[in-house]
Amino acid sequence: MTGAAMAAAVALALTACQMPPPGTGAGAGLPRRVTLVQSGLSVEGPAGFCVDTASVRDTAEGGFVLLAQCTRATGGGGPALLTLSVSPPLAAPGAFAPARLAEFFATAEGRAVLSRAGRADTVRVLESRSGEGAFLLHARDTAPPPIAGLDDDYWRVLFVLDGRLMTATATGFEATPVSAGALKALLARFRIALERANPV
Fold first, then answer.
1. 179: which of 37, 161, 171, 186 lies 20 to 30 Å off by Cα?
2. Which of these CATH numbers, 3.30.70.270, 3.40.50.410, 3.40.1000.10, 3.30.420.250, describes 3-197?
3. Which pLDDT tens digit goes with each residue over 144-190?
4. What is the pLDDT of residue 200?
5. Cβ contact 191:40 at 8 Å
6. CA–CA distance from 141 to each of 19, 138, 150, 153, 182 (Å)?
7. pLDDT confidence of 4, banded at 50, 70, 90?
8. To the nearest whole number, what is the mean pLDDT of the chain?
């Protein structure tokens, strides 16, 4: 996969990440897992997280799912939200090169892709690394969030699963701060849950 092709795939996947979900945990009895029909991908979060069914997008162009702590379904709080965007099938999934993404996200174009407002000046990449077939980054975005009360800081991991680019994100809430380490660990558990739900 060329640098330009990978940047285009990442940009498409992250555009799906920015779509404001209409839900956020309303209603009781939310499921732990949902299957995206277009991709056949099963989406499941770590223990204690449920799928916000109102947020689900499932089209030929990709998918999007938001997960919140199950306690939010009954009016309780929750320290973080998880989102997953799923790309269309990659032409050459084996050519995904996580190490190249550090260079892309260091550019104004890359930071604009990360921004909730599409503006490079709202984003600062605090930390990034590649390894184990994935690219992990910690960023701060000062653009207005799609859901009131979301924190500016988030952790995001990009990896390939079943021939598609997965973009998983963990974001805390201003009212219930979560340490960077705890949010990073939550995101790692999310990736593990996704891989277990979709064995190769």
1. 161
2. 3.40.1000.10
3. 999 999 999 999 999 999 999 999 999 999 998 899 999 999 999 99
4. 82
5. no
6. 15, 10, 11, 6, 19
7. low
8. 88
Enter the tokens of residue 30.
Answer: 């939310």
Distance CA 8, CA 158 (A): 14
The closest of 178, 181, 9, 37 to 101, measured between CA atoms, is 9
Q: Is the pTM of this model over 0.70?
A: yes
63, HSE (Cβ side, Cα atoms, 13 Å): 22
Query: Angle of helix 98-105 relative to helix 3-17, nearest 10 degrees?
Result: 70
3-state SS track over 6-25: HHHHHHHHHHHHCCCCCCCC
Do β-strands 41-44 and 33-36 pair in parallel, antiparallel, or remain unpaired?
Answer: antiparallel
